[in-house]
Write a structure and sequence with these properties.
By secondary structure, the protein is an alpha+beta fold. It folds into 2 domains: about 80 residues; about 110 residues, Electron Transport, Fmn-binding Protein, Chain A (Pnp Oxidase, Chain A, Roll). The chain is about 55% helix and about 25% strand. It contains 6 helices and 8 strands; from the N terminus they run αααββββαβββααβ. A hairpin with a 2-residue loop joins β3 and β4. α1 runs parallel beside α3. The radius of gyration is 21 Å and the shape is elongated.
């Protein structure tokens, strides 16, 4: 395989991965990968040079490092505040997610972006527990509401309380959404859990 062919394969992979990310999630990394990959593919095809392979490998490495570095920084920022383990009993087993929590009145409130199968279980038969500071907490009353039916003032209050509790850590969520997008099939839910 010639260096030009290898460079085109690498450029094509960057473009395909970027396009798949755009279709699935959107986000800056998806768009960047798609545009850069296509531009590199066109350049290698139309104006080949002896540096194309090095350029293709370098771009793939730079994009990978930036993506991995951003993901690491976002996740480590999220984990630097109080995080609990949310456990949802599904017909197929237990789904575990790490989430931020608020204490409002006598309840624990969680904002959770869930996949369709988890949403269906949460709405029909919510069996939820939380591990907080090493302690397993069960709940006698679980209220599950999609955010679109929750009054805007209440959602805003939850976000404001998040801001007060987690401070600048909330900006990591903004960075994550901008760079990695959001899975198009997820639904945002507000869970109010009372013991």
């Amino acid at each position: 395989m010639s260096q030009k062919s290898i460079a085109m394969v690498i450029a094509g992979l960057i473009a395909v991965l970027g396009i798949l990310l755009v279709v699935e999630r959107g986000g800056g990394f998806g768009w960047s990968g798609g545009v850069i990959g296509i531009a590199l593919l066109v350049k290698v095809y139309a104006r080949p040079s002896r540096f194309d392979l090095k350029i293709s490998i370098s771009i793939a490495a730079i994009l990978s490092v930036i993506c991995a570095g951003t993901l690491y920084l976002v996740r480590s920022t999220w984990e630097s505040g109080e995080v609990v383990e949310l456990r949802v009993d599904l017909p197929t087993g237990v789904h575990i997610a790490r989430v931020w929590v608020l204490n409002i009145d006598e309840s624990i409130v969680v904002y959770y972006d869930a996949e369709p199968d988890i949403v269906a279980t949460l709405i029909s038969d919510p069996q939820i527990s939380v591990i907080r500071e090493g302690e397993l907490i069960g709940f006698s009353n679980v209220q599950v509401r999609p955010t679109e039916i929750v009054p805007v003032a209440e959602v805003n209050q939850i976000f404001q309380m998040w801001e007060e509790k987690y401070g600048r850590r909330t900006q990591a969520s903004v960075v994550y959404s901008l760079m990695f997008g959001r899975s198009r099939d997820k639904e945002a839910m507000i869970l109010t859990l009372t013991q």
